[in-house]
Every structure is written in structure tokens, then in C-alpha cells.
Amino acid sequence: MGCNRNCGLLTGAVIGAVLAIFGGVLIPVGDHLIGKAIEKEAVIANGTIAFENWLVPGSSVYRQFWVFHVLNPSEVLEGAQPQLEQRGPYTYRVRYLPKENITENLDGTISYMLPNVALFEPDMSIGTENDTITCLNLAVAAVPSVYKNTLMQIFANSFIKSSKSTMLQNRTVKELLWGYTDPFLDKIPMVSNSVVGVFYPYNGTLDGLYRVYTGTEDIKKTAIIESYKNKRNLSYWEGHCDLVNGTDGASFPPFVKKDQVLRFFSSDICR
Ligand SMILES: *[C@@H]1O[C@H](CO)[C@@H](O)[C@H](O)[C@H]1NC(C)=O
Ligand SMILES: *[C@@H]1O[C@H](CO)[C@@H](O)[C@H](O)[C@H]1NC(C)=O
Ligand SMILES: *[C@@H]1O[C@H](CO)[C@@H](O)[C@H](O)[C@H]1NC(C)=O
Ligand SMILES: *[C@@H]1O[C@H](CO)[C@@H](O)[C@H](O)[C@H]1NC(C)=O
Ligand SMILES: *[C@@H]1O[C@H](CO)[C@@H](O)[C@H](O)[C@H]1NC(C)=O
Ligand SMILES: *[C@@H]1O[C@H](CO)[C@@H](O)[C@H](O)[C@H]1NC(C)=O
Ligand SMILES: *[C@@H]1O[C@H](CO)[C@@H](O)[C@H](O)[C@H]1NC(C)=O
To answer: Which residues line ligand 7 (CB under 6 A)?
Structure first.
């Protein structure tokens, strides 16, 4: 009985020791193997898992807008302070079309054009696209800065009057964001395109050229934008804000740490 018990203990100890050694070896080996597999699949190259997810972002991307509605338009036109009411969010699904004109370059980068498309998401919005908002008349408000010459301002004024435009206007959310034909600009013979909108033109246009790192040379740089429209800076802001820094917001490099800052670039706001 004593021997059996000892043998049992010994066998148990040996098995335990062997397992501990295996475990000790397998943890780093496993980590290494998994790391290698991720490094292989995370690279943006036709055929990898990352490429599929990169071509069309794997998760939906939404853009939300809030607008301010003027509650006291007639008082404002007589010089009172506007009383504003925030409306929204108006949610649009964006980036659901695959990237276009994809070219794999020899220097470890890949370039593409990003198709702009926006689809209204009623379930994620408060109100509809047809909600009418009383807001600033963008075209009329721009006159003093566009036409500095007094004579031109007098002409512009007569067009504003004849088109029955005022400093404020009623527009639907859809018109405001994506464009509408402005009656005042329509009257001015010098203006060839009288469509105004905060994001006009958007639907059906292409954004880019983007050139991003694929990660073949340095996995930490995967999806980071190398250049935008063949430039590293925007020539718009001062200092490092002017740099095109980070990814396009839909893909990020693997092995991101919890405390790491993720930067992304949005061409719509030039940041
Ligand atoms: C990926 O490669 C396949 C086969 O070479 C080709 O048919 C396909 O068009 C490529 N995909 C893209 C997005 O370039
Ligand atoms: C497609 O990509 C190439 C290479 O980056 C570029 O020269 C060309 O202008 C692009 N074409 C379009 C239609 O954007
Ligand atoms: C943009 O185009 C898509 C597809 O043609 C359409 O479904 C969507 O309603 C359009 N969005 C806007 C804001 O016009
Ligand atoms: C918004 O207006 C358009 C055109 O007037 C109409 O076709 C559409 O059904 C309206 N949408 C809603 C949610 O009322
Ligand atoms: C906007 O609509 C409101 C309510 O329908 C109306 O009282 C106001 O006069 C309109 N404003 C303009 C600039 O058309
Ligand atoms: C933008 O970057 C280029 C080099 O990439 C540099 O020559 C130029 O001065 C920069 N422009 C601004 C405004 O910072
Ligand atoms: C991005 O900006 C940060 C902060 O200014 C800077 O440290 C970093 O080097 C920049 N990265 C690139 C790729 O320019």
C-alpha cells in the first residue's frame, strides 16, 4: 500500500512538473504563434482577413448631426438675440460602399478613393429628414464677405429682395445638409452653380486620394494614412494640427494598448 501511495505521489509530481514545463513553454510559444498569425492576417493585402474588413468596414459607421432651430425669427430680423432649440440627432449611415480604385504600391502602401454616400437611419434619429428648420440663410449671410465692394453689395441686395430671401430661411434637414437650390443665388447671372448645402456635393462623390500603410514593413503602422491627396499636410491649420495624422477612423493597427491615443483624420472637417 505504502509503495503504491508513494508511486502515486511520484507519478503525480512528475506529471505536474511536465505539465508546468509544457505550460511555461507553450505560453510564450502560443503567444508568438498567435502574434505571428495576427501579423500575417492584419496586413492590408488582397487575400487577408484585414483586407476584407478594410475594403468595406466590418462594423457600421454612422454620422450624426444636430441642428439649431431659431424660435423667434421675426424678432431676430429686427435685431433681437436668437432663441435656439437644438434638434437631432439626425443619423446617417456612411462608408458602407467598398473603397474604389485600389492600387497596391511597391513601398508598403496602398492607395484608394473613398466613395461618399449617406443613408438616413430613421431608427437612430429623432425626427425625419423632412423636419423643417428655421436657420441662417447661408448664401445671404455670405454676401458681405464675398462682395466687399459697396456697388456690388447694392446689386446683391436687389437680388436678395427680388428673390424674397431674408437673413433666415426655412429648410428641411435634408436640404441643409446635402444641398438645395438657393433662390437668391439663382438670380445672380455670374453664379453658375446655385446649390448650397453644408456638405454639398457629397453623395456620389469620391474622397481622396488616400495612401495608407499596409503594415508589411511595420505592423504598428497598418491603416495609418501616409498621405492625403498626395500631401502630408493640409496647408490649412498651424502646427501639428495641419498634419494628416492617424487612420481614416474605420480601421486601426492591431496590438493597440488600452492607454494608447488613437488618432484619425476626417476630410470633412479637415482635421
Ligand atoms: C483581389 O484579387 C483577386 C484575384 O487576384 C481579384 O479578382 C480581385 O479583384 C482583387 N480584389 C481587389 C479589391 O482588388
Ligand atoms: C486611381 O489611382 C491611381 C494611382 O494612385 C491614380 O493615379 C488615378 O488618378 C486614380 N484614378 C481615379 C479615377 O481616381
Ligand atoms: C445617397 O445615395 C444613396 C444611394 O443612391 C441613397 O440611398 C441615399 O438616400 C442618398 N442620400 C442622400 C442624403 O441623398
Ligand atoms: C419626405 O418627403 C419626401 C418628398 O416630399 C417623401 O417622399 C418622403 O416620404 C418624406 N419622408 C417622410 C419620412 O415623411
Ligand atoms: C418659416 O416658417 C414659419 C412657420 O411656418 C413662418 O412663420 C416663418 O415666416 C417662415 N420663415 C421664413 C423665413 O420663411
Ligand atoms: C507641408 O509639408 C511640406 C513637406 O511635406 C512642407 O514643405 C511644407 O512647408 C508644409 N506646409 C505647411 C503649410 O506646413
Ligand atoms: C501625430 O501627432 C502627434 C502629436 O503631435 C505626433 O507625436 C506624432 O508623431 C504624429 N504622427 C505622425 C505620423 O505624424
So the answer is: 240, 243, 245, 263
